[in-house]
Design goal:
By secondary structure, this protein is an alpha+beta fold. It contains two helices and two strands. A two-stranded antiparallel ribbon has the order 1-2. It is globular, with a radius of gyration of 16 Å. The N and C termini lie far apart (35 Å).
């Protein structure tokens, strides 16, 4: 089926940076990874908001990050205000000068 992961893909990402920062009117979550999966950021944010609101314990995050499915995450955060800021590709994927 077109658009699905290849057989044997474990749907794991390597997150290189993730942080919350203050901004006028609220906060923003920034994340950088080697790939993104469907609803990944929304599940992360929804779960972190539940933890910050004491609706689930902080210890849940470590367990969820190593889980093989997302069935125990909090509901995903709403998609509004979610945007992709930039995409970079490994240097070896660029064509050389012709």
């Amino acid at each position: 089926m077109l658009g699905t992961a290849p057989p044997g893909d474990n749907h794991r990402c390597r997150v290189t940076q993730a942080l919350w920062r203050d901004r006028p009117g609220g906060a923003v979550f920034e994340i950088e990874a080697n790939r993104f999966l469907h609803h990944m950021v929304r599940f992360l944010v929804g779960t972190m908001l539940d933890i910050a609101s004491h609706r689930r314990p902080m210890a849940d995050m470590a367990d969820l990050l190593i889980a093989s499915t997302n069935e125990n995450t909090s509901p995903p955060a709403a998609a509004h205000a979610l945007f992709l800021d930039a995409v970079t590709y490994p240097r070896e994927l660029y064509l050389g000068d012709a």
